[in-house]
Amino acid sequence: LERAGTVVFAGNAVETAFSADGRTAYVSNFHEHTVEEVDTETLAVRRSVRVGGHPKVIAIAPGERRLYVANWATEQVTELDRETFEVRRHLETGEHPRGIAIGRDGQRIYVAAMYSHLIHVFDRGASGERTSFRPCEFPRHLALAPDQSRLYVSCSCCRQVRFFDPQTYRLLGIAQTGENPRTIALSSDGRWLVAADFDDSSITLIDTQELTHRVFPIEGANQIVGVAIRPGDGPLRIYATSWLTGELYMIEPRPDA
Question: Nearest-CA neighbor of 205 among 172, 243, 177?
Answer without folding.
Answer: 177
